[in-house]
Amino acid sequence: MNKPTKIVVGTVLLSVLVGLALAVNVGLTT
After folding, report:
1. Which residues of 1-30 are buried (b: 16+ CB within 10 A; e: fewer)?
2. Helix (H, G, I), strand (E, B), or coil: what is residue 5?
């Protein structure tokens, strides 16, 4: 149970970081 949850958490964190990076890039370019 630990490994699957860690993978899910890691995926969610990565997606959040990517989303933040995209938001920052859009905010800087506009």
Report:
1. eeeeeeeeeeeeeeeeeeeeeeeeeeeeee
2. helix
Concatenating the DSSP letter of every residue in 11-26 gives HHHHHHHHHHHHHHHH
Residue 18 has pLDDT above 80, yes or no: yes
* Token reading at 1: 């149970």
For the record, the structure tokens of 29 come out as: 């370019």
Q: How far is CA 26 from CA 10, 13, 22, 29, 30, in A?
A: 24, 20, 6, 5, 6
Residue 15 has pLDDT above 80, yes or no: yes
